[in-house]
Amino acid sequence: MIRALAFDVFGTVVDWRSSVIGELVDFGARRGVNADWAQMADDWRAGYVPAMDRVRRGELPWTRLDDLHRARLVELLTAAGIDAPDAEIDDLNRAWHRLDPWPDSVAGLTRLKRRFTITTLSNGNVSLLTNMAKRAGLPWDCVLSAEIFRHYKPDREAYLGCAQILDIAPDELMLVAAHPGDLRAARDAGLQTAFVFRPAEHGPDRTLRRPDPAEFDVSADDFLDLADQLDA
Amino acid sequence: MIRALAFDVFGTVVDWRSSVIGELVDFGARRGVNADWAQMADDWRAGYVPAMDRVRRGELPWTRLDDLHRARLVELLTAAGIDAPDAEIDDLNRAWHRLDPWPDSVAGLTRLKRRFTITTLSNGNVSLLTNMAKRAGLPWDCVLSAEIFRHYKPDREAYLGCAQILDIAPDELMLVAAHPGDLRAARDAGLQTAFVFRPAEHGPDRTLRRPDPAEFDVSADDFLDLADQLDA
To answer: Measured between CA atoms, how close is A143 to chain B, in angstroms?
Structure first.
């Protein structure tokens, strides 16, 4: 029996790439500078895993994703020769708080919420996720984050901490994610798993393939299909 | 400037006493036993502060409110000579997940949410608060709890932890509570404070008096009045 659904957020619920490119384009227009903003968005995102891994390995103390994002942003702006006041960099860094949902996300979550407890389980910090949900109308029952467990996914503690704080068994919790690696780690921790295909996550030039549907408990085209498959 | 409102929950948002008495009456009817259920509700609630204080003083390791509630419930049932299976005691203990809101709570929170981030800041554990919100339709932006900070209110760490995880300054956060002691501790930690008068919290036989309104930043009759005063 599934009692709660925990959602990966970046890429699964929201289209980070289009949103961040849009924010970078606006920033460039305000500053009167130009760059390959799509490439910068990809490079910004690509900095995320190595930075988290330094925290996961204990080379850095616990550091919020906002702060990891900001350090990477400063590196990228410096490399591009772009100067900006701190307040403007802070604002640009909060682009990750203003990501737009995929077209089916709000409607699908609203349906799934009728039947299940729905929570975030993201590496984004709580304030990022809260601000994002408020702006985008994501109807979470609660906002859980790696920040609360002081362990970034795919650390086992993040998945087990989520089940524990919801006071349910790991196999009563289903992780919903567009990323096989996240789902495999959740499965190894004893959770149920739902893959959702988000072929546009990395933009038009990267073709994503579906993983073998037999690998996960559910494999869905989007959140409405997930709601159908879970009778929500 | 206020950016977020953090709400005490038991007594401030929900009418714990009427709800718990109702659950005890139903339990008694199911078990075919009788007792002074109103007195038992009051005794159950009265066990909460001393039990939390044992955690706050470090005499007990971190213990969720659900578990503190359950230990007290078993004491009370034993003292009353009432026997029940574990599963039934578990269910009765979850009465605290099923508390009804005051009549103005949902409408007031809905208005306040338009202008501010609204969160719980309760000694109730996350699963209790999440289940309560889902049942009662409380539209929180996020669910924060003493459990996340591993400090029960009125420990300073709970108030400061709430501001920190929301990524705002303590004086950008306002605690909303019906209890002067909670508000005073929040004020001492640098938060803004809103007193809400809930004269029926302890039932018809206990007359509550309003504290001096000058002591807090806002003093309101209910959440609609609070929304009026905060222009929400």
So the answer is: 5
